[in-house]
Specification:
The chain is mainly β. It has one helix at residues 39-42; strands at 17-18, 28-29, 48-51, 54-59, 65-70, 77-78, 86-91, 94-100, 103-109, 116-129, 132-138, 143-149, 155-159, 162-168, 171-179, 190-197, 204-207, 211-217, 220-225, 232-236, 243-246, 249-256, 259-266, 269-276, 283-286, 290-296, 299-304, 314-317, 324-325. A seven-stranded antiparallel β-sheet has the order 7-8-9-10-11-12-13, with no helix packed on it. Strand 16 and strand 17 (204-207) form a beta hairpin.
Length: 327
């Protein structure tokens, strides 16, 4: 997926908790549709999440370990194990993440207690919805899509040969791998754009595109592709009315409100740009070598790529103004 230069952030809503008879302090989430991160942010890496006044984040100053701190920067401490933490999701009182690219799937209580392994294989693309975690992992023959109950740890296979994916309204939109990358021939591989329900039924092929980052707004899907000419596409959820929205996306792409925010390369620079949902008013907001981090409320979060490991994150408004350091 995207490289470590892209950091992402989420504001998630506070869910109500229903007490359950589960061991080790687990609780059943009463809102089964609570997402651990926004789809746009997760598909860009999921490096930061915010909930209940706390920031959960990948600490680039300490081996990319999982940390949390208050939004004013105080009470900063490590809460995960001594391993990488990517695709951070926060649902209920648990933090979920993968320890590598790919790596094992872990969950840990928001206060740092009760670290548990959900899947010890090399996993990727983690999305948590309610009490279920969705992710890809290899079975030794190919990379498949799985769903695991985060409490009972019961696991099922949903679809075979899956690369990137997103979930919306109980439907999984994904890259179905047709040909895998071949290290011997250096063939890039290929895939097509498909959808299936969360139980692995009602498969539909949408297009011949090879999707990478997938976002949703209303009746439309916004997405980028592997090995393409940096286009951002829009099409209806049934695969019809496909158009090009932008042609200079070089990495991250997140849809928020009435806009698409994305990394747009010009020469040696990686700018942060904004375009509206119909493909007009494409403007550069921040010029330079930046990595887009994500969207929080009405703010864009970003970093200076060349200074990524100094741990400094920045925010600006949706017009690229009022730039300041994030605590």
């Amino acid at each position: 997926m995207v490289g470590k230069g892209v950091i992402v952030l989420l504001i998630v809503t506070i869910s109500l908790l229903l007490p359950g008879c589960y061991p080790q302090g687990d609780t059943l989430i009463s809102n089964a549709t609570e997402y651990g991160n926004t789809i746009g942010n997760i598909n860009c890496g999921g490096y930061i999440a915010i909930k209940d006044g706390w920031m959960y984040y990948t600490n680039t100053n300490n081996n990319d370990y999982l940390y949390r701190k208050k939004l004013d920067g105080t009470e900063d401490k490590q809460i995960g194990g001594n391993h990488f933490a990517y695709n951070i999701n926060v649902v209920g009182n648990w933090v979920y993440y993968r320890a590598g690219s790919p790596g094992k799937i872990y969950k840990v209580n928001t206060d740092g207690k009760e670290l548990q392994v959900l899947d010890n294989r090399r996993c990727d693309n983690l999305i948590v919805v309610g009490n279920n975690a969705y992710y890809t992992a290899s079975d030794g023959k190919g990379v498949n899509l799985y769903r695991i109950d985060t409490i009972s740890k019961k696991k099922i296979e949903i679809a075979k040969d899956v690369n990137s994916f997103s979930i919306d309204d109980n439907i999984i939109y994904y890259n179905h791998i047709i040909e895998y990358f071949d290290r011997d021939t250096m063939s890039n591989g290929s895939g097509d754009f498909c959808k299936i329900d969360i139980n692995g039924e009602n498969y539909v092929k949408l297009s011949d595109d090879d999707p990478l980052i997938i976002n949703f707004v209303g009746d439309f899907i916004y997405y980028t592709t592997h090995f393409d000419d940096n286009n951002i596409y829009r099409m209806k959820r049934d695969g019809s009315d496909r158009i090009v929205i932008a042609d200079n996306c070089s990495g991250a792409m997140i849809v928020s409100g009435d806009y698409i925010f994305y990394s747009g390369r010009q020469g040696s620079e990686n700018n942060i740009s904004r375009i509206n949902l119909v493909g007009s008013d494409n403007i550069i907001l921040l010029e330079g070598n930046f990595g887009i981090l994500g969207i929080a409320d009405r703010y864009i979060l970003f970093c200076k790529i060349t200074e990524r490991h100094d741990g400094t994150y920045f925010i600006s408004d949706f017009d690229g103004n009022n730039v300041q350091a994030w605590p």
